[in-house]
Amino acid sequence: MTSVTKPQWVPSEDRVQNAIVTDFMTWLDQQDRAKVNDFAGLHQWSVSHIADFWSAAWDYFDLPGEKGRHIYTRNDQDIKASAWFSQSKINFAENLLRYRGDQEALVFWGEKGRQRSLSRDEVYNEVSRLAQALKAQGVEPGDRVAGLMPNMPEAIVAMLATTAIGGVWSSASPDFGAQGILDRFGQIAPKVLIAPDSYDYNLKNHDVLGKVTDVVKEIPALEKVVVISWSGENLDLSGLDNAVDMRDFVNPFEPAEIAFSRQGFDHPLYIMFSSGTTGAPKCIVHRAGGALMKQLVEHKFHGDLKENDRLFYFTTCGWMMWNWFAAGLGCGATLICYDGSPFAGSPTILFDLAEQEKITHFGTSPKYLDTLKKAGESPIDKYKLPALRAIFSTGSPLLPEGFDFVYEHVKKDVQLASIAGGTDILGCFMLGNPIGAVYRGEIQTPALGCAVSAFSDEGKPVSDAKSDDGSNERGELVCTEPFPSMPLCFWGDEDGSRYNKAYFERFDNIWTHGDFLEITENGGLIIHGRSDATLNPGGVRIGTAEIYRQVETLEEIREAIVVGQNWDGDVRVVLCVILQDGVKSLDKELIKKIKTRIRTGCTPRHVPAKVVAVSDIPRTRSGKITELAVRDIINGREVGNKEALANPEALDLYRNISTLQED
């Protein structure tokens, strides 16, 4: 992608002056901590004076807890063992529940619209009662509580209650199959499981108790199963051992001031799970202090999320964006939870929500925006969204055409913040800048406190030389300095070998994230797909996102997936496409059109050797297409863990495709 010189959006002077990050820079100057005049300068200071930045963030946020005098010690031999705030005492839930009163804290929408809301005081009281119940059940600091939960207020209450008493929270979405649940929760031996009896999706009700019954038999550590009635009706739990209705579980306890269990900065908070498409999911343990500080920096400084703002993110409890979303409570924001299909009843139900709830920050994905675009939807013509200040997008790279769609068909005066990071860091390596310009196709800035770079195969920052298509050189996304939300460990990885292999095998003592990165002349960033899915025809590295950008502009194509096939001692590019309704076949003329678009929009090296039509594309349960799984099937290898996929049956479409057995 060639460098863009004209921005699509520039913040008004009023927005710049009133941004939280502007106030932070003024505060730094007044406190004689640093003199920085713009976001780029702040980022440079944050990575060259790491201890000073994170110490200042703690003080500026005025975090409840004991900071201690020690801030940071770098371990030069093993940066993941670097020490952060080693004398501090803090509790995650205490920080998220610091705002009290009768203002709305949680609002719940289902597929049929608004269901209910809870005030800040009501959330606090519900957390208090459940925390007391969990403690009475025997949950102690370090014990695991697992949630197989829809994205509903009870999920956030359960997470806060668990972490308030020092427990470790881990969640998954109720659409997982029994084996997928066991692959996750079976590894971490939870003491309590919290789950609904059912949930709604695509205007249908789906049972959960059946698979919970199967799962409970295989996790001997479980002492109690707490069940939430989705409909509010009475529950029949006679067939489930050690089960109790949530209402009965908390009924003996009255709301009271919560005795928050303050622990060290490194106390385990969450156990997150990798997608698990290449084997059993990795159980990634995150520290309470690191998650809290990282997510507050992102919400406040990058997202400009203020008290009484209204935050929405379309997510499930099986995706790290749910954890990221929940941290918005620590800014005093109202969280709008939605559970169900984003197209249930109406293709634009999420914009019904955005308009009616006066959403200020709207979180979505490139896939959702592209689906609206291809359906001919134009929310700007139907909805009034005066409160909306920011749109977040993640899950895959947001292509330039996605930027165009937002500014032409959603809202013109809005900060479009494409963000990228992952479960591995419980946050982002790059995201928005509320006081900076938005350039088409570019993520605005690297994350504060993260020394992000693009490395060549030789382990050096890529050169300023241009590629054949006029873009800057690309390289591996790395972070060269420690940051507080690096995982504490992997559960069960006693010698740390799996952790080291996951992030430090490629470059010694340098975090390698697995994305293919370009840094633009604007100081922005572009992700060109996963580096482990990077194509290498003739030994030349090609990012898959570049091909998707061209293919998805064709009206005949609904969606595509591109992989590398081992062939004749080399790798050839294979493009699989789903045709739009009404397109009869993938004939020679359409294949020629596809190849021509890719050749003219990219380079001849990007042109696929084979183009085939398929009816479905396998996805993870968070909605990401699985290039590695398709690549394995096409190359005759089996996929290690099909339970990680939302639609594993789609893999069969890629077996023994006749045209892929030909030159």
Automatic annotation (TrEMBL):
Keyword Cell wall biogenesis/degradation: no
Pfam hit, one: AMP-binding_C
UniProtKB keywords: ATP-binding, Ligase, Nucleotide-binding
Gene3D superfamilies xrefs: 3.30.300.30, N-terminal domain of ligase-like (3.40.50.12780)
InterPro entries (alphabetical): Acac_CoA_synth, AMP-bd_C, AMP-bd_C_sf, AMP-binding_CS, AMP-dep_synth/lig_dom, ANL_N_sf
Family from the record: Belongs to the ATP-dependent AMP-binding enzyme family.
Protein name, per record: Acetoacetyl-CoA synthetase
Taxonomic source organism: Kiloniella spongiae
